[in-house]
Specification:
two-stranded antiparallel ribbon; 894 residues; 64% helix; 7 strands
């Protein structure tokens, strides 16, 4: 029978791995062919002991032989709660070789965002955005890969990687086409669930081909390995029993053959019956029994090493195991001889800060699980103190503190709260959540209990609004949250309710709390929040007298503090939605600024008020034709979020409203680019949220303006731009935009129905601004043949409301609508008036449309030419095509 042998350079665990090694070789050849080559990703799956680590070692050997830079890391079963543990291991070779100034230069703007997560920069004083940190880590590796090309990243036991690393790995895998990096990942088929499993699925989906599943050794390969280890005289029956005992598991086979050598067992059929007992001593309970045979000191040393998990130095283990230095060194040598611990192999690149590591993760797990429960808990407590004394900080000690039994220890609660703050500052809210949930089990003392709940709500706010609601309600029901902190908690609760699509309850919550307070800044703040949530509610009707109450309250405000400034903004936005005079809207908004700028504490990254209020301010300027001010605010938001590393919903909204600014200005190409980026970011946050609607609605509107109707329809279909609509206001009105879309694709009846639904919803809310809710003009055009009388009434109503609002854009658009319903000289006069107003407007797309319509009505070659130039400058392909067609057939035009 032919025995299958690996190459001479390969380890025993690489028997029958020719196909996998060939795949690695092809990937390396592709990587090294050209500096501009696309990145590659290989995923190898296999049960414990099937040779995943050996395959990565062979990958390192092959890569280094080609001159590649290789970085590697390994997940650990007891280290999954340590955020960024694996990605820090991975980048350690690059970071250690750099001076701090070099690291800052390479990472650029991402240094302050990703640096704290990597442990090379101090964290800031506020909660970091997890998505921003993830993007920063992707950028970090991208920049470092240019320096260290060709670069190979090896990640072993990815099923045990921390969730933050897996988030980064999933995002990195999806961007590999932009980078010349080879990533090789190994993992077990199971041992992971929830969010981590989804991240690993994303990684697998990004690979060039399906994940390769490693198989056990065949009987022939096991026989070959047995004879290569013990000698050619090993007989067939003995070799067959080795395979039967180990089930062809390479790791168990190697360990068993080592035991055979140690015991000087003859490899013959007569001694084959002893293999099963030898195999039991190499794993599970047998390994524990073998460990105990080494003595109590060696056992305590191994237990302490398993508790530490990483950075296993003899000095630290000695402190944890209460051993003298000489005894500790003796135990370390015993455990190395017994193949339980080993010195880290420099070839793996994972030497880290420890003297020792376990020979295999299976051994580490068996040793850890063998520690008696009560002793294991006590050792974690001691380990926490040792880690803290070594100066590693509360976050490093937290994984040990979490394992300690609750014992009414307020000092431990304080340590866990400090660890949670550190985790939040580096962008690891899930790790902060675990710390604070453990702190609640201690439990905290009554005076600190509501504060722990409040901090826990901060940790869950971005990922679990429903949990946040429960934590804050409980905290607010306890004594202890007073003054400004209580107001902050109520505001945070209302935000969580809003994000959980419970806007009406958010309104009731702040209203009830405001009623409890005496007149003053705190009450005024909650009143402002109450009006803010009501103002963005897109429900069937508003509360009676709301606008008048808001106007009365705002009339007393001079803008002396942020509560008064907020009320002025809210009053301005309310007046905008109702179509009141635009000059008054602008005057209210101007009074909310300090020397023309946002007041301190009212910036885009300040958390006291949230993004909604500032978007109301910016949008009030945008729709009153003060586009310079609006765009300044939109771009300020974008810069603020990018600088702070906020890559989630805030950045998605910033891009959406930068796009809206471009759309209003008539820069349709730029608008489309911003809105597509917004939609990409919004997809990562989650569908159905108001920010997702903002991006989709504005993108559809922009594509329609560009004349790309089929593409607008495809975007609407793909992203669910259809009823039911969100409970919060989206600008421009999504019903009006969808109605226009339906008309554009020829579904006239459906379009009219949608616009009539927009009419009903606007009337219920009192939203009569024809610029923000433009259903009437489109409905009038749609009805001009079927029901001309109603169309005429609608046009008159649009003009009346536009004149009340008073902007050039509103009046010009109303005149365009009126001209579209007329013929002859009356149509020409109205079209000419529309041009006059829209020429003075900052909205160049509308000006281009009016100019072309006038050129057609007046048969003016000059105006068609000018309209064509304007349409081309806007990127309005549909308008430009219409102008060209009229010019080509316009014989006799003036």
């Amino acid at each position: 029978m032919t025995e299958v042998r690996p190459t001479a350079a390969a380890s025993a665990s690489l028997w029958e791995r020719d196909e996998e090694v060939a795949a690695v070789t092809r990937a390396l050849d592709s990587l090294c062919a050209d500096r501009s080559s696309s990145g590659g990703l290989l995923v190898f799956r296999g049960e414990a002991g099937l040779g995943k680590t050996a395959l990565l070692a062979e990958t390192r050997r092959l890569a280094e032989a080609r001159g590649c830079t290789v970085w590697s890391a390994r997940g650990g079963e007891t280290l999954r709660s340590v955020p960024f543990n694996v990605v820090r291991q991975l980048l350690q070779p690059a970071l250690v070789s750099m001076l701090p100034e070099e690291a800052r230069e390479y990472l650029g703007d991402w240094y302050d965002i990703a640096g704290p997560a990597l442990g090379i920069a101090d964290p800031g004083d506020r909660q970091a955005d997890p998505q921003g940190v993830c993007d920063g880590l992707v950028a970090a590796v991208r920049r470092l890969s240019r320096r260290d090309w060709p670069l190979v990243l090896l990640i072993d036991d990815a099923h045990w990687a921390d969730q933050e690393t897996l988030h980064w790995l999933a995002a990195f895998a999806e961007r590999l086409a932009e980078m010349s990096v080879l990533v090789v990942v190994t993992r077990r088929p199971d041992d992971v669930s929830g969010t981590s499993a989804r991240h690993l699925d994303t990684v697998a989906a990004a690979a060039a081909g399906p994940a390769t599943t490693l198989s056990a050794l065949t009987p022939d390969a096991t026989a070959g390995l047995t004879r290569a280890t013990l000698g050619a005289h090993a007989d067939a029956a003995f070799c067959r029993e080795v395979w039967a005992v180990t089930a062809g598991n390479p790791y168990e086979t190697v360990e068993l053959l080592a035991k055979v050598q140690d015991s000087e067992l003859e490899p013959v059929e007569a001694r084959a019956g002893e293999l099963r007992e030898l195999n039991r001593s190499a794993r599970g309970g047998g390994l524990v029994a073998r460990l105990e045979e080494l003595g109590i000191d060696a056992t305590r040393f191994a237990w302490a090493a398993a508790i530490l998990g990483t950075g296993i130095s003899i000095d630290l283990v000695a402190k944890l195991a209460t051993l003298k230095p000489g005894e500790a060194r003796r135990c370390a040598e015993l455990l190395r001889t017994a193949r339980i611990l080993t010195a880290p192999d420099p070839a793996t690149g994972r030497s880290g800060d420890g003297d020792l590591e376990f020979v295999h993760p299976l051994i580490a797990t068996a040793v850890y699980n063998s520690i008696p429960d009560a002793l294991r808990t006590a050792m974690h407590g001691i380990a926490a103190r040792i880690v803290t004394d070594e100066g590693h900080g509360a976050a490093a000690a937290a994984r040990h503190l979490i394992e300690v039994h609750p014992d009414d220890d307020e000092e431990l609660v304080g340590q866990l709260r400090e660890a949670a703050r550190e985790h939040l500052a580096v962008g690891a809210p899930d790790a902060a959540r675990r710390c604070l949930e453990r702190a609640l089990k201690e439990p905290p003392r009554p005076d600190s209990h509501p504060h722990v709940l409040y901090e826990l709500a901060e940790a869950t706010f971005l990922t679990a609004p429903a949990r946040t609601i429960g934590h804050l309600r409980t905290a607010l029901g306890m004594p202890g949250l007073d003054g400004d902190q209580r107001v902050d908690a109520v505001f945070r609760l209302s935000q969580a309710l809003l994000h959980n699509d419970q806007l009406e309850e958010a309104v009731r919550t702040v209203e009830a709390e405001a009623a409890r307070l005496q007149p003053g800044p705190a009450r005024m703040r909650l009143q402002a929040v109450h009006f803010m949530w009501e103002g963005i509610h897109a429900g069937e009707a508003t509360s009676p007298g709301r606008s008048q109450r808001l106007a009365d309250l705002a009339s007393t405000c001079t803008g002396r503090d942020n509560s008064e400034r907020a009320l002025l903004i809210l009053r301005g936005f309310d007046a905008l939605m109702h179509g009141e005079n635009a000059e008054e809207v602008v005057e209210l908004c101007d009074r909310a600024l300090v020397n023309g700028r946002l007041a301190p504490g009212l910036g885009w990254t300040d958390t006291e008020w949230g993004i909604e209020l500032l978007l109301m301010l910016a949008n009030a300027y945008a729709f009153t034709d003060r586009l310079d001010r609006a765009e300044s605010l939109y771009n300020e938001a974008l810069r603020a979020y990018e600088t702070a590393g906020w890559s989630g919903g805030h950045l998605a909204l910033a891009h959406a409203y930068v796009g809206l600014g471009h759309r209003r200005r008539g820069r349709l190409t730029d608008a489309e680019a911003s809105l597509r980026e917004s939609l990409r970011l919004a997809e990562r946050v989650g569908r159905g949220l108001p920010l997702y609607w903002s991006a989709t609605c504005n993108l559809v509107d922009t594509l329609l303006a560009r004349g790309r109707v089929e593409e607008a329809w495809e975007v609407a279909e793909r992203h669910g731009f259809a009823p039911p609509y969100p409970s919060t206001i989206v600008l421009p009105d999504p019903r009006s935009v969808r109605g226009r879309l339906l008309l554009a694709v020829g579904r006239t009846k459906d379009g009219i129905n949608e616009l009539e639904a927009a009419e009903k919803a606007a009337a219920a809310r009192g939203h009569h601004n024809p610029v923000l809710v433009p259903w009437a003009a489109d409905l009038a055009r749609a009805l001009r043949t079927e029901d001309p009388d109603r169309a005429a009434r609608l046009a008159v109503d649009v003009r009346r409301r536009a004149e009340r609002f008073g902007t050039d854009t509103a009046i010009g658009e109303a005149l365009r609508c009126a001209a579209a319903l007329e013929t002859g000289q009356r149509a020409v006069r109205l079209a000419a008036q529309a041009v006059t107003y829209l020429e003075a407007s900052p909205c160049q797309y509308e000006h281009a449309a009016a100019r072309i319509e006038y050129g057609i009505a007046a048969r003016s070659m000059t105006d068609l030419d000018r309209g064509l130039d304007l349409a081309l400058s806007c990127g309005a392909d549909g308008l430009a095509a219409r102008a060209r067609a009229e010019l080509e057939t316009g014989a006799g035009l003036r």
